[in-house]
Amino acid sequence: MNEREKNLSEIRAAVLTLFKLGRNRRRVAQHNEVASRELRKLQPDSASVSVSAPGYLLLLGLEECEPCRISDLARNTVQDLSAVVRQVQTMEKAGLLTRNSSPDDGRTVMISRTPRGKDTLHVLERTAIQQIGEAVRDWSDEEVIQFAVLFSRFVQDSAAASYETG
Length: 166
Fold this sequence. Notes:
Elements: H1 3-23, H2 25-42, H3 53-64, E1 68-69, H4 70-76, H5 81-93, E2 97-101, E3 109-113, H6 115-135, H7 141-160
């Protein structure tokens, strides 16, 4: 194995670990607990608000295409449609999302974030950024900048890669 292949193998292992961290229910629960505390400080009536990892993805997805049909939201966030429907129902009951008829076609239901949903996403994002900051607290500013540039490039290039062999 040459040096480039070794480095690629290390990247693959790091990506797998990152995926596992994202799927780790305990870590997600810790993030949500910290975010929930922050929400309660800002919105005392938000004691019952808890956003799961899939719900977090939906709030992020709506930030990119709001209002949005549920099927488009499921596709854009790479989630199962039935799971998204259930998650939307839960988040609607919590006052984070709202459903409205499309102005173009009254039969089409469009999903949007409520002001509370937008505030919740803001807190979740701020909490995530603080946790990332904690992970790289011993890095120099230059290292953080270099990592941000290269990791963003890696993600963009990965999304564009065809993954066809030979």
